[in-house]
């Protein structure tokens, strides 16, 4: 059974555990006890190469074809063994024609003599027959032209280089990997293999690269039927992203709202909006002029030309024909613009405050794990197993997740038009902020030092662990209920 059909891993596998119900609803919750079901797995490049080899071997065995042919089929069908099987057994001839696999390849002359010359189909020079190569179609090209053809494709076409066809016009026969390996240098073969690795992830419906900075992991979803479900993935680098849009995780808002908010918060976009609303070009020199006074009479700061803000004429009385209607409309537009900016400022400041707290929590966790190996040192000094400190890491991850949810709740609030519901949301967010702050203080460095440094005892440790886990549970449940309330539209 292929990797895209079923995943079964042992307890020690490099998996991240999330609750089964959370995948179905799109909700993600940090597990503190580990009693959960695996739904996605992390893959490094070595793992991906092994997966590729396993899938090629499996398909080769099932269809009784060579590994090179199996590789060509898998690339065309986005590395899905099951998709290849369905298509192949439904219409083998059609599949062969589509991917460029001949049922009866051209015969290979095993008694080639260097004394027999033939011409290259690209450069048209003549070479001894043994210096010419062909794909399964039999069209001959010199090895120099073949190498150049493959290398140029690698340089210019990206992943397209793994789908090479014979360069003969109207031929379309696939060039297999065995032939490509024979034509390339060791360095170029490695580069070609890197393209294959990328294709294994990027062409798959169940695999994606983690978008975290400098992260080496790919994520593979286990199980079928969830490709179109919106859910979040947390990588081992601590990056959490939306599987659907590949941006940072953004519940409770959907992908379109998250995109709008990001555009809204872009400083260049804000400047453009201000220019559009508050500026008009001078009729003479076309330089934008910003209206800052109540008067509709403008004087260009560049050329000195005087004009009416409303009708752009050189001289216009205060009773401009457009004044009564347009000036009223402009005032309304200006007031609406200021109201919009004030509202945005209010929510963006809260959004940014939670974002900065989230980043700070991640940095603190990384410092604990990387600088001085904080938990290992505590384990040695206190004589406790290293696993006894896992709950602290999970608590920090819970803080990060809660801050992320609060962050995007403010984006949700910005687009909420019902004032009564907005008041209710702000109250719920205030409570949420208070609970997350309490959790942050409990898991902070000062709190940990007070527990582990001053008259440490097993009782004190157990008491602290119970308190921290309790806070995690209460805080996580509160924010999960908040997210579900927003998702269901149940604000009152």
Automatic annotation (TrEMBL):
<keyword id="KW-0479">Metal-binding</keyword>
<comment type="function">
    <text>Might act as an E3 ubiquitin-protein ligase, or as part of E3 complex, which accepts ubiquitin from specific E2 ubiquitin-conjugating enzymes and then transfers it to substrates.</text>
</comment>
<dbReference type="GO" id="GO:0061630">
    <property type="term" value="F:ubiquitin protein ligase activity"/>
</dbReference>
<dbReference type="InterPro" id="IPR048962">
    <property type="entry name" value="ARIH1-like_UBL"/>
</dbReference>
<comment type="similarity">
    <text>Belongs to the RBR family. Ariadne subfamily.</text>
</comment>
<dbReference type="InterPro" id="IPR001841">
    <property type="entry name" value="Znf_RING"/>
</dbReference>
<dbReference type="Pfam" id="PF01485">
    <property type="entry name" value="IBR"/>
</dbReference>
<keyword id="KW-0862">Zinc</keyword>
<dbReference type="InterPro" id="IPR013083">
    <property type="entry name" value="Znf_RING/FYVE/PHD"/>
</dbReference>
<dbReference type="Pfam" id="PF22191">
    <property type="entry name" value="IBR_1"/>
</dbReference>
<feature type="domain" description="RING-type">
    <location>
        <begin position="116"/>
        <end position="333"/>
    </location>
</feature>
<dbReference type="Pfam" id="PF21235">
    <property type="entry name" value="UBA_ARI1"/>
</dbReference>
<dbReference type="GO" id="GO:0008270">
    <property type="term" value="F:zinc ion binding"/>
</dbReference>
<dbReference type="InterPro" id="IPR017907">
    <property type="entry name" value="Znf_RING_CS"/>
</dbReference>
<keyword id="KW-0808">Transferase</keyword>
<dbReference type="GO" id="GO:0016567">
    <property type="term" value="P:protein ubiquitination"/>
</dbReference>
<dbReference type="InterPro" id="IPR002867">
    <property type="entry name" value="IBR_dom"/>
</dbReference>
<keyword id="KW-0677">Repeat</keyword>
<protein>
    <recommendedName>
        <fullName>RBR-type E3 ubiquitin transferase</fullName>
        <ecNumber>2.3.2.31</ecNumber>
    </recommendedName>
</protein>
<dbReference type="InterPro" id="IPR031127">
    <property type="entry name" value="E3_UB_ligase_RBR"/>
</dbReference>
<dbReference type="InterPro" id="IPR044066">
    <property type="entry name" value="TRIAD_supradom"/>
</dbReference>
<keyword id="KW-0863">Zinc-finger</keyword>
<comment type="pathway">
    <text>Protein modification; protein ubiquitination.</text>
</comment>
<keyword id="KW-0833">Ubl conjugation pathway</keyword>
<feature type="domain" description="RING-type">
    <location>
        <begin position="120"/>
        <end position="167"/>
    </location>
</feature>
